[in-house]
Amino acid sequence: MANSPVRMSLRFSRSLLCASAGAALLLLPFAVNAQGGTAPTTATSQTASGDWLYADSDIPRDTAWQFGTLPNGVRYAVRNNGVPPGQVSIRVRMDVGSMFETEEERGYAHLLEHLTFRGSEHIPDGEAKRIWQRFGVTFGSDSNAQTTPTQTVYQLDLPSVTPANLDESMKLLSGMIRQPRISELAVAAERGVVMSELRESDGPQKRIGDATNAHLFAGQLLGDRSPIGTTASLGKASAPTVAAFHKRWYRPDRAVVVIVGDSEPAELARLVAKYYGDWRADGPNPVDPDFGKPDPKASPAREIVEANQPLALTLAMVRPWQKRIDTVENTRRLYLEFIAQALVNRRLENRARSGGSYLVATVEQQYVSRSADITMASIVPLSDWKAALADVRGVIADATSNPPSQADIDREANEIEAFLRKELENARNEPGARLADDLVRAVDIHEVVTSPQGQVDMFKAIRAFATPQVMLETSKAIFAAPVTRAVLTTPTAAGGDAAVRAALKAPVTARDDRLVSVQADFKQLPAFGTPGTITSTDSLLGLRAERIEFANGVTALVSNNKIEPGKVRVNVRFGTGNRSVAADSPNLLWTGDYALVASGIGPWGQNEIDQLTNGRQIQLNFSIDDNAFELSAESKPADLSDQMRLIAGKLAQPRWDTAPIERLRVGYLTGHDLNDATPNAVLDRNLRGWLTNNDARWAAPDKAQIEALTPAAFRAFWEPRLASGPIEVQIFGDLEAVDYREILASTLGALPPRKVLAPANGQRVDFAKAAPVPDIAYHRGAEGQAAAMTAWPTGGGLANPRDARGLEVLAAIFNDRLFDRLRAEQGASYGPVVDSHWPTGFDSGGYLLVGSLLAPKDIDRFYGIARDIAADLVANQVGVDELTRNAVPIREMVSRASTGNVYWMFLLEGATRDPRVATAALSMETDIAAVTAADVQRLAQQYLTPQRQWSLAILPKGMTLADASALGAATGATATTAGGR
């Protein structure tokens, strides 16, 4: 529900309320992700340094962590964790980021991160990736890295750990970090990849983000030290200059090694000592750069004109960052600040819901990159940006002039406390990777971590301090600053900086948009009818789950388990989803995601539902599947009864408030012109429609369709679908303390029988028509940006799950080869993608898709490589090692996921009505393990035929495919012949 805290670190939570398709971007410095030595010596002795993370802090320790410092200064933190079983998560944080670079070195920290993942001086280029693949590591998710303004973090999640592969992985990673292969050849290759990343990220949103950061953080390195770097500085990078950067900043006393997983902490600490203990620094530790302070003399206002972009406003109160010891008192301040933000956000949202001057407005206070303490309002005006700015400033003025009521404070505190208690109840299921990431983040922002119980206990004591007067003083503090700045983004000039400055200086009238207290109780919802009768119960063979059927046709699959103590997951599938609409019929499927839930239930609108669910674990999420609509939630045993009443109420007693529909319409129109600003935006909007031969169920709505949306049309489309059957319920979780049969009987089981809405031709899904040359689409962005896609139709349904698994392996092999040639060897793309889509809701509509963002000159190169790889897979069987390197990571991902309820709920959708679903779910791991080289070749021969192949290129407007080919020929961007691996 609105204003629910979202965890930013284990110890403290912050959130940003997002409301609709037109939500403003949070324009702050971004982290750059890269997908990603030896010289081990005898382990040195360790210096007992105590809990270095908690120096001078009185926050209760999380005693599961063990800390240490090696004699050379390497700090480490290790702990045992068995979620998922058999996995160990390794993080190595280097205390260096983009703000540590000189002007000539911009982008070096990120470039070095790329080079590090190529390998070390002691292993061949690219071999580390292959070794980890054999261990079951998925490149890009299990092995990755991130560069921010203040740190570079290397991550490795190693599944199915053995003493041997853990030792080997520690050796590889330490060697890569300590002695990366920095040759001219490697620098040239990775420079091309980073340049591709820079090109692919370029566009109006990046330009707006860069300009906004430069304005908000004027006088600070943060304003012009984006981790991606610049074309000029990267173009001059050489092996000696990058090696010098590494030598200066990659030192043992700037390293923190964090390891969490299914291993004894003493063994993990021993491995840290073994592979990092003999690391020696060259010279003294350099002094950190001065990150700067906000410049009070810089202009307070900035207008950014960017064609085809919607109106957007950023209002920022900027304060210098202060280093603080993280104590209980500091934690109190942070929580009070969060409550103050939540109070304002609820008022802003209340005004938007009731028809204000903006589509969405949110405030968020952040401590950014150890540089700025900033409170920022992000606003998407409806039309009059001055009125929107005045209204938001008015809400803030009220919050800093008049104390909130205790009831308002308690509402927000209840949300935080409910979140923290949920964390406590699920503490034993905390994934090791998340714990490792949280600790690294704490180190970076100079905070500590505590246990979930410590978190709950601290907040219980802290909320007692949240009185109206204290919250008034806290609001004054976070909305006051020596520097206030505003940025207006507009598609056409709106008066320049002077107009923004004048609006910022205009007098403010306090706006009282506080929520009126509403009396909402679940007793207000009428009964659904006589509780239903159970007609049959049985178990699904091979599963710890019970199938229940009611007289009205509702079926349920219930799994009572302790996988997640105190948590219950619910998924109610109803109707026929995309199949409820014919392929060529107009539809409003695109309106459901936000407006269907927001339009209310029975006697309650959004505000009443917020009141009903305040401080409780009750949700309502909506999605559309190929063969069902879904209402899902994450709840807890004590709230399950009311959770099911809320879901049943949405189906049986929907409300049709008009404001959310109008808000959705305006949101879509506000963001519509973004849809062709970059190749990626064009793909996001249109790709699924193109692949299904412009099937109306997946084709994006055009502007006329959006403009024509009315509350009456919305209701006419959705009312019969909410009332249609069948209904299938999944309830998985901790159910020992509840009578789930009675809950089901009195809610969904009590509904009258429902008719099925499925037109005769709703089952058909076509594939894009094959063509000898690529189709062409256009974007209105930079001339150096393009994209290329090619795809082959495959299949769908449950008749042949073995082939579905085989195609996943085929796609992984194709992707691995494409990555090696298009990115690693030629630097033509940052992230080529190969994906196998096999829908279970239709017996057709599957495809194998190959695509990449590129420069126009590389379009022919992409198609040549893709064609050669496909032809080689058809003609030759893959080798044993290549099959292993690509199949084992898939199998490991499945194995890890299968320990959780989310995995089984997803795989068992539809299992109460079709026994093939459970059979396919149970055989998933064995089906993947059974894929052979002959299977891969057979599937390639069956599907990767040129006669069925569809291709499309997205080019800058005005450019032809011949123009792109000419650019490729002029630069020598041609494909070479592919071979087997």
TrEMBL record:
The keyword Signal applies. It comes from the Bacteria. PROSITE patterns: INSULINASE. The keyword Transmembrane helix does not apply. Residues 1-34 form the signal peptide. Pfam families: Peptidase_M16, Peptidase_M16_C. Its cofactor is Zn(2+). GO terms for molecular function: metal ion binding; metalloendopeptidase activity. GO terms for biological process: proteolysis. InterPro entries: Metalloenz_LuxS/M16 (IPR011249), MPP/UQCRC_Complex (IPR050361), Pept_M16_N (IPR011765), Pept_M16_Zn_BS (IPR001431), Peptidase_M16_C (IPR007863). Keywords: Hydrolase, Metalloprotease, Protease, Signal. Belongs to the peptidase M16 family. This is Peptidase M16. The lineage of its organism: Bacteria, Pseudomonadati, Pseudomonadota, Alphaproteobacteria, Sphingomonadales.
